[in-house]
């Protein structure tokens, strides 16, 4: 390591001549850091302190740290001993290397950090302290770890290129392990000591330095301590010689004592405490490193299987689910839906994977986030043959989309199964518009009564459609998911419908080579597609319905996206744990961060109302109403929350006016309209108030707790205490029974709701009848009474005025019934529905006012039946806050936080606290 050579040292000192600064590696490294960091500053999110910036800086800093470590050892080998030991005290090679190397690394980090803090003058950073934490835990830690690798590379050889190669070997080996895990293991996040923390899908915005990340860095610190201890022992003889040479030189001796004279012994015997500490830290690090899935640093099929212990085998799937969960209770129908989706894709493509697909169904988003790394995002890596889903009930809305990704591997590149290529002749190309557009086209989903093409037509009329050329590639991620998915999906579906599946598959395989596949440039095909969209009938109501959905921009256009998502999550956790004041203060901070975002004020108002701070809640709603550029959907939610507060306070007149104003708002979808009409009736008829409040539970935090579900059913049954409302009661009870998978009982109630007796008010309109009939289709399918399911579906299809999205749903149910008839054969004696009017009747609440006559609410549709007290679906605004409160029409276990284009791709809003009931 070190040899005493006065002549050599004199030569090195005397012959040194001035050189240009850039010829010095230290100066070159400093200039590189400065220029690289400056180059990041114009980039959205990456250019300021935070998660993306940390991810971009971590790898370069670890590589530079390795070079610093190598050069430190080379410098120590050519530096006079008395200069290394300037202090005259005890000096070791490790201490000398630390004094020189860590000071340079500190300068490199300071340069980068200085540039980042300088950007705060021109770039908004909502959480600079959180960004600083990311910087310290990311680039700073990785630079130190790289420096340790450089030290070892330096002492193991004398040629610089070999030293550098040895130093970089563990860095790239760790990268290979991380990439291997992302490729083979069921995980979408990655921890790496040198390359940093990759949190997973872009659309899961809540990212912070959490406990798991800190534990990972603690594991890295143990490994680093073991490596430094081993380095100390490895260089122990050289350290003794270094000290002796320094003393000899100070005493004017020509040569230092020999190893025999120094009494150099076995380093393990000479430094037993260092050896023991090295062993202990190495063992502790190994306990983490050998079981990474156990500690949450990655995931494996076995680790997921420990959490999802239930397994169901079907013809084409192995379905993993949590025991004692909603999935287990409905596993037969969930498996049937898996097989139905598989057969639908096979019928379209004419091909299918030759292997069984593993489907992992998580009980909720939080468990999936902890185990897999993606919470609100459904995931299906095409190359892996796995799909990862949140439980969303039956029929699962995004299952076929995720399964389409697994099918697309048959057409994609050989390695990843995606639309693109990676080879020496053509280079690299990844076309995300084809990856997601292909899956969306194979599994189009209606939204608010509009099919996929109508949604794209609305997007075009709103002027928010991204050009195809702008999303054909990785630039797809620059655009808001709802806009990009709708655009790519509609275009691919149009190609499928007009030019066939084989050409579309060829386009996918080519990485989006439109000219090579169709013989015309992409702009010409885009013009034809836009002409097709322009011919579709879209009215102002449809545009207003979708305006809020397409309003939110991309994450790259929201500088506070991560901070906002973290605050929302903090508020939810604080409220769930009963820390009311902390939750309210967090929500007020959220309103200050994005003062023009009305959803934050709606969430704050809901939290204040939940604590019976009604005046504060009304004041918050007034502030929300005063914001600029409110969409019709937002205005209706503000009015609805005002009505809910009035209903809770007993101010029925205020509630009546508020609900009326909400109903008068243009662009309401059918679900919101039914919800508002039902609340409007409660404000108009005092007898209904207790039951409606008991059913909707406005602002309730944990609305889906079992006891709340029981209360909700009880409230629905209570409505039958007033005989004229018996059909309404049966409808609401039937919907809740269907949610609970009590399908036979649900058919009885739902049939009864459609058959009012003398003096009873029928359901108010065709839309309510549609919902009751659609629920009956599902209920009869569940009990395998397919003839009755078909009869109710045919009645639905015969009703006039169905939207494009409704017709799409009806056609899908038509195919589903045919499939179920063969897959789950009909029972020998299907259950008979209970006679209309059957069921328990409860005594009216005290103080009720019998005999109140209620006119039909605003917006009631009388196309099918006479006006009556309406039924409706509560929406998520009843609970906390979403501006786009589409209550799930079928099950209160579903949240409307499934994303639009695919729940696979994040909801643009983090999930509000509770999911309101679905009647």
Description:
The chain is mainly α and 919 residues long. 58% of the residues lie in helices and 4% in strands. It has 40 helices and eight strands. The protein has a four-stranded mixed beta sheet with strand order 3-4-5-6, sandwiched between helices. The protein has a two-stranded antiparallel ribbon with strand order 1-2. A hairpin with a 3-residue loop joins β3 (310-313) and β4 (317-321). The longest helix is centred in the first third of the chain and has 29 residues, at 128-156. It is elongated, with a radius of gyration of 33 Å. The N and C termini lie far apart (78 Å).
Low-confidence stretches: 1-18, 829-852, 862-918
- Oligomer state of the chains in this structure: single chain
Rg result: 33 Å
**Largest sheet data:** 4 strands, mixed
Mean pLDDT: 83
The portion of residues forming beta strands comes to under 5%
Instruction: Give the proportion of residues in helices.
Output: 55-70%
First-last Cα distance = 78 Å
Please, how many helices? 40
Which strands sit side by side, in order, in the main sheet?
Answer: 3-4-5-6
- Give the helix/strand class: mainly alpha
Described by the principal axes of the CA atoms, the overall outline is elongated
- Record field, number of beta strands: 8
